[in-house]
Amino acid sequence: MAAEATAVQPLEASELVELAELGSADTSLADFEQGVFRLVQRHVGFDLGFFRRNRDYGALSAGTDLALMQEIRPLWPTFITEGHALCAACSAQRGVAVDAEVYGARLERLTAYQRLTKPSGMRTGAMLVSQAGGRFIAALLLGRRSSEFRPAELERLRQFAAFIRLAETWRWVERRAARASAALVVPESVGLTERERELLSYLGLGYTNEQIASACGVSPYTVRNQLSRAYSKLGVATRAEAVAALRGSGLAD
User: In angstroms, how far is CA 249 from the centroid of its own chain?
Assistant: First the structure.
């Protein structure tokens, strides 16, 4: 196993450039995730995969069942709780861990296995975790139906994990700064939820619904519905009217 791991070659210069471009500010979160999938697939095959955040999942790769992901959305808190051991293993193993190696015989008893892994036909899964200051930011989950992840492949994934961790951390800091600079001080009487305030803050930055969806890790359909409710509370009908009203009151500056 050790001999196989040492045979792993560093990423090529052109791939490093591609990774750097993916991590740039001009790349949307969805494009970033899909680009990572393409590069990982080039070196380490997988049958399904997705990025996970605390609130939702990100851009989907080939093989991920969207209907199933929607169905199990209410179970996300349970999956996060069950995944603590896997996250800890990732931290101890340079960002990458395999579920079967962490949980052993307990794996099949997990809710995540019963509702996601088993229905997807997965045999094994690998997770790449991104953290900043000990805080979970995102994880890339890859699944295979026919084979295990070999040691050399896990070493290759660790090369990607280092980049993803840096890119995700930078984006996380950027998103927090953007939200802070466009924070809204809307009167409590308006009755906006925390999520509605967050979405409105992106309007002040000129984000489209698709860009807001990428930044928040939800679908454009969800963004549209939540903004519609926020508009109703503000007494406006359109995005332009919302921005005008907020800027007029100094709330979107």
Answer: 34
